[in-house]
Amino acid sequence: MKHATPENEFARALLKGLSDSPKTAEAKWFYDAAGSALFERITELPEYYPTRTEIGILRDRLPEIAAHVPAGAALIEFGSGASVKTRVLLDGLDQLAAYVPIDISAQFLAETADGLRRDYPALTIHPVTGDFMTQLTLPPALDARPKVGFFPGSTIGNLDRDAAVALLAQARHWPDAAGFILGADLVKDADVLRAAYDDAQGVTAEFNRNLLHRANREAGADFDPDSFAHEARWNAAEARIEMHLVSRAAQRVQVAGQHIDFAEGETIHTENSRKYTAESLTDMAQAAGWRVADLLTDPQDYFAVALLKP
Ligand code: AVJ
């Protein structure tokens, strides 16, 4: 064999995406420790409205959200929990019996669960380790409980439509599925959208380039990260922000023992962040067997928290 298969999953996935035309990388690879810290900084940027807008909706509309959650229910969160958003709900929904954070990192989950058990002694915490894009097994102790899914942050926007529908359908098929609370970013003025993904301080640019630093650290690559420019494009036809890393020159890069050639201006497409309308959200929910019982938005209509019912 000419090329040995790289032994780690990140290196394999990276090589595969870089052999595609156009070159791509999946957004989930942003989140090593450095990338997660950069994302936390993004959520505090003046241009990045989604996090603070969603928290505002959750706080302001707690009574309506509470009415959506049956007594004795389990709240099942996709992705990293223990954030401000989770706590807003746990503080406001005293009818909850259980909280189930699902995360890929067992270590992170264990720490989260300890903190939550301290702060919410009345709540049973059942952490589930796993990739929420795959079929998950819920703890049998939850069998009899009504289940409400929670997927905040518009992280659903990273998924293509089929994957998003599959995730929502999985929750719809839980025994005693009672509802779903979905955070989704909305289509708006293109300049507002672009600024949110290309901030003046350059934090998002560093977040994007961290993929190259990570490739150098973990995938035997020799990228010169400064030779790639950060670009955030609004793709109106697909209703999505795309992040790209644009090669500033023709160059050859080594990745896990193979070489990858870039033309000047050639890009690695590193993320899609889909933006929704009431129509496209309703359509996606319906395709997964849910109906939109309520669509809670902020006064500017920047962000939506959709309350889905079977
Ligand atoms: C975590 C996927 C919701 O799409 O807004 C932020 C990630 N990328 N800035 C988003 C992100 C660039 C974020 N999500």
UniProtKB/TrEMBL annotation:
This protein's record includes keyword Ligase: no
Organism: Pacificitalea manganoxidans
Keyword Transmembrane helix: no
Entry keyword set: Methyltransferase, Transferase
BP term (GO), one: methylation
GO molecular function, one term: methyltransferase activity
Pfam families assigned: Methyltransf_33 (PF10017)
Name of the protein this chain belongs to: L-histidine N(Alpha)-methyltransferase
Lineage top rank: taxon: Bacteria
Domain Histidine-specific methyltransferase SAM-dependent: 11-309
